[in-house]
Amino acid sequence: MNQDFLTPVKESVVTQLMLQSDLCLGKKIRIHTEKDGFPELDTIQIAILGIQEDRNSENNFGCGENLHHIRTKLYQLFPGNWNTNIADLGNVLKGNEVSDTYFAVSEIITSLLKKNIIPVIIGGGQDITYVNYRAYDSLEQTVNITAVDSRFDLGNLNDPLTSQSYLSKIIMQEPNNLFNYSNVGYQTYFNSQEEIKLLDSLFFDAQRLGKAKELENIEPAFRNSDIVSIDIGAIRQSEAPANNNASANGFYGEEICAIARYAGISDKVSSFGIYEYNSKLDSNHQTANLIAQMIWYFIEGVNFRVKDYPFSGKENYQKFTVLLEDDDPITFYKSNKSGRWWIEINILSNNKYKRHALIPCTYKDYTDATKQIIPEKWYKAMRKLV
Fold first, then answer.
1. Does residue 146 surpass a pLDDT of 60?
2. Per the CB 3.0–4.6 Å rule, which of 4, 141, 146, 184 could disulfide with 225?
3. From residue 69, how far is each of 83, 100, 112, 121, 297 by CA, in Å?
4. ∠ at Cα 261 (202, 223), nearest 5°?
5. Is residue 105 a contact partner of residue 64, using CB atoms and an 8 Å limit?
6. pLDDT tens-digit profile of 330-368?
């Protein structure tokens, strides 16, 4: 990893940490500091990475600044009963051009992924999601993305890459390694009917805010994701004011923390980002506090991964076959470890989509199938493979 791209955590944060309890989380993290230098990563599972890039963030300039507020709040929290090793790598500064920042971020994330370290990205605009996605190119695998956002951020095809057009770049630009995109918590009045129809025509998943608030509906989306991207604007303004595009409606604090835990507990999620934090709008550091708690819940989830996907051995699963009147039977699996459910998709062994042969689902999907109602996620996955 090119450490030249990274600057140490702000000295005032490190000084303040010295006054905290020896039991606090900050004392358990290996921190990139001016004094101690860059941390050793050999046994690290999670690495925190700040991005000080806001130039392509639409209507939210300043969203890469003052990330030390988030760190201060995070370091003060107490860890759970964890055995997860965490490092804080510091920040990527703005390059001379935005493309310079993108290059540095992509190189760092790629290096972390190859070491099986999960990057937790804070700061910057949500356009960084595109950079995160491109970092998977060298892994030569298809990728699933789940975005927690009130908007789809499709933009127009000819728009430059911004926080509100990054998804069209992911969909259209080569190499195209995207298998599935899921949006969690979109608000219809922020998205045109044409955009909603486009996502449906691509067999992507989108759950409106009202349905997404029934949290059991959205857990499979995170279980199936490689990349999770959260726009702070998806949280209601009263809970997280530090975003110039914040709205009166959105997720409550406890809901977004539960979502972060879903992302963490997924065996598949290998990068996690929280974007669009604008400290200039953060009354009493309220949003920084919430982001710190979201990161805490994500780490909690990672620590309690049960590693039941992909198959750890079929003896650890119950298999259920549902006969359909007008179609081939559908096979479901239920994990004995976690009680979670999957639908099996029939894929030829040499197919590049082999890693998507099991689609996470809910118990309701199984009971619907027994009533001859084909689960929508099975239908969409099959359509992608035709």
1. yes
2. 146
3. 26, 25, 24, 15, 18
4. 35
5. no
6. 999 999 989 999 999 887 555 667 777 889 999 999 999
Question: What percent of the chain is predicted at pLDDT more than 70?
Answer: 97
User: What is the Cβ-side half-sphere exposure of residue 263, based on CA atoms within 13 angstroms?
Assistant: 32
Joined tokens for residue 307: 């590693």
Token pair in block for residue 134? 């491109």
Going from the C-alpha of 126 to that of each of 151, 183, 268, 272, the distances in angstroms are: 11, 14, 21, 12
284-299 pLDDT, tens digit per residue, is: 999 999 999 999 999 9
Q: Compute the Cα dihedral for 10, 115, 40, 82 and give only its sign.
A: positive
How many whole angstroms separate alpha carbon 138 and alpha carbon 127?
20
Would you call the peptide bond into 241 cis, given omega within 30 degrees of 0 as the criterion? Answer: no
48 burial class (0-12, 13-18, 19+ CB within 10 angstroms)? buried
**Separation CA 84–CA 72 (nearest Å):** 20
**What DSSP state is assigned to residue 239?**
T
At residue 214 the predicted structure's pLDDT band, cuts being 50, 70 and 90, is very high
Rounded CA separation 98/106 (Å): 12
Which tens digits make up the pLDDT trace of 120-130? 999 999 999 99
- Joined together, the tokens standing for residue 8 give 């140490």
Confidence class for position 327, pLDDT limits 50, 70, 90: confident
The tokens describing 28, both together, are 């358990």
Treating both helix axes as pointing N-terminal to C-terminal, what angle do 68-76 and 286-303 enclose, rounded to 10 degrees? 60
What sign does the CA torsion over 14, 16, 19, 24 have? negative
Strands (E), the chain: 6-7, 30-31, 46-51, 86-92, 118-122, 143-148, 178-186, 205-208, 227-231, 271-275, 317-322, 330-335, 341-344, 358-361
Contacts of 316-325 spanning 24+ positions with Cβ under 8 A:
320/366, 322/366, 322/369, 322/370, 324/369, 324/372, 324/374, 325/372
